[in-house]
Amino acid sequence: MGNQRKIFVVGHKNPDTDSICSAIAYADIKNRSHEKRYVAKRAGQINQETQYVLNRFGINPPGYISDVGTQVKDMDIRKSPDAYSYFSIKNAWTMMRENGVVTLPVKNKDGCLEGIVTVGDIARIFMEMPDNRILAKARTQYRQIAETIDGEIVVGDADAYFVKGKVNIGAAHLEIMREHVEPDDLVIMANREEDQECVIRMGVSCIIICLGSQVSERIRLLAQQYNCVVITSPLDTYTVASSINQSIPIRHIMKKENLVTFSTEDYTDNIKEIMVKKRHRAFPVINKRGKCVGTISRRNFMGMHKKQIILVDHNEKDQAVDNIENAEILEIIDHHRIGSLETIQPVLFRNQPVGCTATILYQIYEENKLEISPDIAGLLCAAIISDTLMFRSPTCTVADKMAAGALALIANIKIEELATEMFRAGSNLSDKSPEEIFYQDYKKFMAEELNFGVGQISSMNSEELATLKGKILPFMQSECGRQGVSQVFFMLTNIMEECTELLYYGENSEQMVEQAFHVKKENDTYKLPGVVSRKKQLIPALMEVAQDIYA
């Protein structure tokens, strides 16, 4: 289950209680009906009413998701074999060949990236002018030297390092060798015992005896006396000499500075240009814990997995989580008008004229004969109370009332008491900024060439609504004109009196309100008796007028 791709169930931006609770409930339904993994998410900050409801029924809020564009973790990341800096070039090359990779991330013992080695790095070390001191410069371990030439250490410490001197081939006459061999050198030799004795007494660090020749006891004792490592190899002198540089540890050739890496959380739109400019064959990928998990290349863009999404309580593109056009929408469960959202393929789209998405979810539980737990029942009941303003909204249907009643019984709650507590918690906005209040329940709409936004705060306290009015008015002016919005409206809805004071700002906004509701201004606002629903009462009326004015 842990490795399964997650399918996110998410509501709209600036989520209300219905949006959050419906996402939680539908994820529960899907997880109990399917083998795939469904996870509830939220596309914005949770308001105080919703937080109260979640706390009341002991449910953790869904995780936040701001963008559903494809990320590096949605690619087929090529898992890299574990390579460490002490590996020999031969080890690295074998590993790259067996795994079919051209870039090998080098990790430390904690799995964090130390550097990278490429096929080009390995080729370069052998194509450049030979350096007979490179083994010493690279601090090559005798164990790696022996492994590289299929050899065996018969005298000396395998964990020690060759750190000084050059590599010599001891095939010349003794007199000539005395001229060229220096103390601390490594000498590749045949089976002539007198030559072996000569170079050991000269103070070399190591001798390699080729063709599997036996090492006499006298030479072993002499080597121990002079602290000289003795390695035997079944290979011939030429093969040993030509392959010994492959024992160099990859830390000597790996790139460590200015590495171009990507995080699993990076969005693919942000890394495309970097990948094109750098032109590397592959790029290391680092996860959230700082571990290197593999590599990606430009080719990975072709097989990228889009995020799979189920939308609840909305079907408008402007209300959806960012980059929704780059995600794969699987289902939509909603109770609003059909909006602007488009899908590439047909999807399951359940849209019903009820007052709340939670009512539809109650029906789905019933249709699938799934038992509803008391905590989920409490969430769904609270969502219906919130969206229908405790059944006062004209959007409320008989189905909403029946669902709320059945859910209240399961959750063992009293609807009137829960409603009072919820609305009190939701209207307690004294410590919030005008921006937070404004966006708590704000949606954008489009009619003809007009883009307008509508926010709403519902409260049972008229004095609190009057206080909020002073906070919101100045902010509406600054909001108008942003993101193409030319008009802004804000509903201050009194639940008990079943009326709304409508604030407005923007060109033709007054004309639209007066024409839609046949009212006149009162102290720079409009009183709308009986209007409590944005969806069913305010928006349709404004849309109709906008079509007349802007058509």
What does this structure look like?
This protein is of the alpha/beta class and 551 residues long. The protein has four domains: 6-69 and 307-426, Alpha-Beta Complex (inorganic pyrophosphatase (n-terminal core)); 73-126 and 252-303, CBS-domain (Roll), CATH 3.10.580.10; 139-247, 3-Layer(aba) Sandwich (Udp-n-acetylmuramoylalanyl-d-glutamate--2,6- Diaminopimelate Ligase, Chain: A, domain 1), CATH 3.40.1390.20; 434-550, Roll (Diaminopimelate Epimerase, Chain A, domain 1), CATH 3.10.310.20. The protein is 36% helix and 20% strand. The chain has 19 helices and 23 strands. A six-stranded parallel sheet has the order 3-2-1-16-17-18. Strand 19 and strand 20 form a beta hairpin. The longest helix is centred in the C-terminal third of the chain and has 18 residues, at 462-479. The protein is elongated and about 115 Å long. The two termini are 53 Å apart. The model has no long low-confidence stretch (mean pLDDT 91).
